[in-house]
Amino acid sequence: MAHHATPTTRTASMFHTADDAAVAFYRERGWVLVDTLNRPQTEELRRWVDEIARWPDGEGEWLHYREMTEAGPKLCRTENFVPFHSGMRALLTGGVMADVAGRLLGEPAVLYKEKVNYKLAGGAGYAAHQDAPAYPSVQVHASCMLAVDDVTPANGCLEVVSCMHHALLPLDGRGCIPADVVESMSWEAVAVPAGATLWFHSRTPHRSGPNLSSHDRRAVYPTYNARSEGDLRAAYYHRKLDEFAGTDAPHDRVRVSLIGDFEGRPV
Ligand SMILES: O=C(O)CCC(=O)C(=O)O
């Protein structure tokens, strides 16, 4: 887990809307920070995430994942919750989120998958990776981190590499970016205030550190693809469940993805 050299921290450059300047920034850099929810909407999002976190295991088709921390087992991710939560469904499949995704993709967008990454106090980080190898079936996606809590370097914000979203990088044995390539790139830590959204291309290299603070750092991550490539959400979750069922999980990390980017310890 010693992958974090000191990145530059970015606190500025938040766009108020996904206007032409924001889209141009995204196209050039492969990521952009956009103000998204006002304070009451952010409070409501926080309540929704609390509700989802309380859903029991095994009573629905949502997927909860847990990691071992110094304070014992903690929830680290929930996926496939949109069919079971009307507020989240409205927020992520229609309205402002899908609109912004469509502007960034340059055509109408449809939700491909969604997750909450909880990164509760003491939660682990993610090794440097591009998302594209974990997202089969379509060429281009736009993802984002919609911050539920203020996301800061101390609680494990994302670190990104600008202007590297044009090509797939080599993979190491876990499907992540090899250490020598990681070291050769210039990483920027992007703090995201609660209610704002850090949008990033599926080939934008990113990583994050553990949550070393005493407060939880929750974020919702919807991923969109161009509607012209199809509505592939159900197929994505079928395939993921099949692949998880057909292969053994590694012993040293919690498996939450089709690549081994999450550094959390199994419970
Ligand atoms: O939530 C984080 O800190 C990073 C998440 C991430 O990179 C991922 O889920 O692919």
Provide a quick synopsis of the model.
With 267 residues, this protein is an alpha+beta fold.
Describe the structure.
By secondary structure, the protein is α+β, with helices and mostly antiparallel strands. It has six helices and 13 strands. Strands 2-3-11-8-13-6-5-4 form an eight-stranded mixed β-sheet. Strands 1-10-9-12-7 form a five-stranded mixed β-sheet, with no helix packed on it. The protein is globular and about 45 Å long. It starts with 7 loop residues before the first strand and ends in a 21-residue tail after the last helix.
Descriptive tags:
globular; binds 2-oxoglutaric acid; single chain; 6 helices; alpha+beta; 267 residues; 25% strand; 5-stranded mixed sheet; Jelly Rolls
Write the layout of secondary structure elements.
Elements: E1 8-10, E2 14-15, H1 20-29, E3 31-35, H2 39-54, E4 63-69, E5 72-79, H3 86-93, H4 95-105, E6 109-117, E7 126-129, E8 141-147, E9 158-160, H5 179-184, E10 188-190, E11 196-201, E12 206-208, E13 219-226, H6 233-246
Parallel strand pairs: 1-10, 2-3
Antiparallel strand pairs: 3-11, 4-5, 5-6, 6-13, 7-12, 8-11, 8-13, 9-10, 9-12
Helix pairs in contact: 3-4
The structure holds 2-oxoglutaric acid.
- H/E topology pattern: EEHEHEEHHEEEEHEEEEH
How much strand? 25-35%
Number of H/I helices: 6
Strand order of the largest sheet: 2-3-11-8-13-6-5-4
Which molecules are bound in this entry?
Answer: 2-oxoglutaric acid
CATH topology: Jelly Rolls
